[in-house]
Design a protein that fits this description.
Length: 133
Amino acid sequence: MNRFSCFLLTIALIVGSSNAIWEKNSLHFKSSLRPGNTLRIRCLSNDDDLGVHLLSPGQTYDFSFHDSIFKTYFDCTLDQGPNFSFHASFTAYKSGGGIIRYGKTNFWDAREDGMYFTHGQEAPKLEYKWIHV
């Protein structure tokens, strides 16, 4: 009975800690554009098209996901300005090669001069400038 109790305790500890081990990754988009300027977001992965999302200044769009053992990516296209004439396309998240990440967070902030990026611990940095199309 003593070995069985140790076995049950071990299983309980593993299951209890599994939330931290299997935490989803997440992407967060925020519109810091000037009033009246709408941000349009469309993200595609190797498995899904997440559709089009429109954000007013100050609004956010977030989603969470698990990495695939093979490859996980989200390519996103963002447009803003009059008639959505300013454009940025980039890979907002990427992993692969057998490396599975858990709890990774990517923050993207749309500002007037471009897209800023951070993982949350450091100040956001300009990664992509808007392209006028």
